[in-house]
User: Fold this.
Amino acid sequence: SVIFLVYGAGLYVLLNVYPSPIFVYLMNNFSLPSFMAAALWAGFGAAKLLELPKKYSLTGFAALGLAVIIPLAANFKANDQSWNYTSEEYGMNIINTPERNSILLLSGDTEQAVMSYLKYAENVRPDLDIYDNYGWYFKRIVPEKYWADNTNEMKRQIILEQMQTELIKNSGRPVYHTTGSLADNMKGFCPRQVGMIYKIEDCASKPDTESAGKIWSSYTLESTQKINKNSDIFTRENAGLYYYARASWLSILGDTTGTARELKAGAEISYDSPGILGAISAIYLSLGMKNEAL
Assistant:
């Protein structure tokens, strides 16, 4: 009983957090001991049924069977994820965007998790060197002696930006970054959107929008296009990031109608993701669509 309470509703009390949809989804993993306790209770109940006289035990097992089958039948469709390869699609679309022998800078958990699977488990793009800010999954740009100091986050961010700048200047290789990277605001460089990510180039160079635009046709979106409002929050965030990136690209091309269409799709599917909604609102504002931004 203690395990069930502590790792169930007790987590919300101990952590003193509001049970938002994203928190509930995240906490499912940490609530496994609670589920195990409930399973033990179910096992004890089934054992007790075996101790009853035969005519009663058969009735009890029939009731137990219905208690399992009815929720399963009612909720199977909503929980069936056999079609859902959205995360893999999202990662493959990103990892296949840079040209050969490039460098990719990651900045978010969504990209880092799926990229680690694709690189280490599937050995996709061995020619591509990947860095992440914290060095949790891939190479860390900032030396350990600086990163170990947790007392000054601003100092670490400054050092990270300096190290990224040196990497871009001295690597002699094409460098790309995902949305939200510090590399987005580096002095002397301009991020040019290429599909869902950005290529860091000299601001004096001419943008190659024709080549950059062709990458969209190579993306796989079979699962992404099946996502709806009832899908889990992380699946919907992957879709929302795609719609945001697509809208950003169409806005560069001056396609206001297409931009608005993709923004609407992204806002509807990521209705409870503040970061994505904020990015979508920024594009709406750049188009002068204040009502939609709000």
User: Anything to note?
Assistant: The mean pLDDT is 84. The CA atoms of residues 136 and 192 lie 27 Å apart. The beta strands are 103-106, 129-132, 175-177, 189-194, 197-202.
